[in-house]
Amino acid sequence: MKVLLINGSPHEKGTTYTALKKAADTLESLGIEAEIFHVEKLATTCIDCRVCKKKQNNRCAFDDSVNRALEKAETADGFIFGTPVHFASACGLMTAFMDRLFYAGRSLFCHKPAAAISCARRAGTTATMDQMNKYMTINEMPVVSSQYWNMVHGSVAEDAPKDEEGMQTMETLAKNMAWLLKCIEAGRKAGICPPEEVPAVKTNFIR
Question: In the beta sheet, which residues pair with residue 143?
Answer without folding.
Answer: 114
